[in-house]
Amino acid sequence: MARVDLDEVRKVYPNGYVGVAGATFEVADGELLVLVGPSGCGKSTLLRMIAGLESISGGTLRIGDRVVNDVAPKDRDIAMVFQSYALYPHMSVAENLAFGLKLRGHDRATVEARVREAAATLELDALLERKPGQLSGGQRQRVALGRALVRNPQVFLLDEPLSNLDAKLRMSMRVEIAHLHRQLGATMIYVTHDQIEAMTLGQRIVVLDRGEIQQIDTPMALYERPANLFVATFLGSPAMNVLRGRLAREDGWALALDDGSRLPLAGEGLREAWAGRELDVGIRPEHLQRGGDGGFAPTVEVVEPVGNEVFVNLRHGAHPLIARLPPGELPQPGAALPLRLDAAHLHVFDPETGRRL
Ligand SMILES: Nc1ncnc2c1ncn2[C@@H]1O[C@H](COP(=O)(O)OP(=O)(O)O)[C@@H](O)[C@H]1O
Ligand SMILES: [Mg+2]
Questions:
Q1: Buried/exposed code over 120-130 (b: 16+ C-beta within 10 A; e: otherwise)
Q2: The domain containing residue 278 runs over which residues?
């Protein structure tokens, strides 16, 4: 296995569009790194540059200790898995698995051994004679993974490999990929637009938006200390509440909102220097706690019980809020719900730059 090292790697498409604006990060040997961001943010562009399927406009890409900017894809010792599976429909599963190895001139015994091994790892043994058309979506995806596996590459690149599967299958395949990663000790770069997939699978996550890296960290660190408003609102479901207002020091702290309403903030964690200043204040739905004293009472609009918790959509003045509450007696739409906000849990951002303060 190998590490992957990007130094200011850039992609400018021939039409002048900047697909990736200088990406710098390192994937450690054996790490599972996730690239996440909304559709069109440059994830595939970045992965395809690493694979060698897209030329690099600037910067340096290393796999292991070798600069590979101008190395052909087949000589980079990587294997890529695509969302579309890209299986050969007229070939059996066994032939699909063997194809890449044969092409590279491996002898028959080696090919057979590797195919057998990959089929066992991915539980494809019973399907080897079938054609892709006779497989379910999950089985096809497993064959696509198997095709990467038999290559025994230095680095695995996976571009939204689970996007075509239904929710339940996606979850079980996610666990299988995490398991496979551990079993192989492989270096993997995994691309997804799905923040839950990113959070559950990544040892570290690179968050991309509009071709630019927003933050790189472990899932929990990103969740607890998002560097800017984009990361704050992109990760987490339901998304973080964000309210713009002026911070006021009265009996305690309060946020004066543009609609004339105010939001009392109990507890410590705010800085004197912020008093009187306009701020974007972020509140995770789980940090709106039920409680009376020193709180506020927004109006309940829609209640969504999901079993182990309840999402409550609220309105405070002109502002929508969402709270995540433990199950129990459900609040009634139209009622006022007394809530408390602990200042220690707030995320404070500069409204001009969006950066965390
Ligand atoms: N060949 C191309 N020429 C110009 N722009 C492109 C080309 N390929 C992709 N793009 C643009 O680059 C951006 C990033 O694309 P992509 O990397 O595929 O995004 P993602 O995988 O994150 O959805 C998109 O806005 C896309 O339209
Ligand atoms: Mg893509």
A1: ebbebeebbee
A2: 241-349
